[in-house]
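Subject: sequence -> structure tokens, single chain

Hey, anyone have a minute? Need the predicted structure for the following. Not urgent.
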Amino acid sequence: MPTIDPQPTDDTSQDTKQLIAKAMKKVLGSLVRLLLRQGIDYGAVQEWLKQAFVEETRKELERRGEKVTLSRISVISGVHRKDVKRLSEIQEQETPRNERSSITSRLVSLWLGDSQYLNEQGQPKCLSRSGEDSFDALVESVSKDVRPRTILDDWLQRGLISGNDQQGYELNAQALYPSEDQATKVAFFARNTADHIAACEHNLRGESSPFPERSVFYNHLSKDSVDELQQLASEQGQALLIRLNKRAQELARQDDAQGGGDHRFILGTYFYREQERKDDA
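Reply:
Had a minute. Here:
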């Protein structure tokens, strides 16, 4: 199967580079807007770019089974050799750390998708405080390090659940979009954006099995029309995620029973809107 070399040399590849350059200007515009609004200037980003080029070049050489040297990384990435050496030493000193999904996300995922916590209609059960298939049991199935009472009080305060010990506790529909602390929001932003770009890059390489990557776009609409479409997108997106989550829970149990697997996936939905400017017309 033909592959696309990361160092294009022919005329067609040069055309592709020009197309990518034009696309990157648009993508980077949104990222720069985010950075400016957070008070982050070009100097900081320049250092991050160097580090990213060094790290990704190293990964690409390893993937291709080539010898990894500072000079080779410098030549391919365009980063000066002394910076490659410095950044490589920094990366070696850093302690690897795998990001873990927040306990809230994992609990919500189970409550929405595990048949143990669903009623006959496939909707989240009203859970008792303790006992079998209870709120305490749900929390303890995910973590033994956090007291169920701590999660319960936090969720009640944030409005993710409602109820009491006598009547039981119900999961609110809005729990699918939990309002987390800023650190968690940024972590989700990093994961979701990185994986979305990775899916696009996979498709741009012309792989035989492209990932689903679709969107619907309309302009010249009224505010009321976009309000309605946003509500519809929210409802349909939530239904899709819940359906997929249920099936993923079933397959996860099946795979665990067979020794587990080594693959992951992510599916996301997004909706963006803005008022058009005159120069957009």
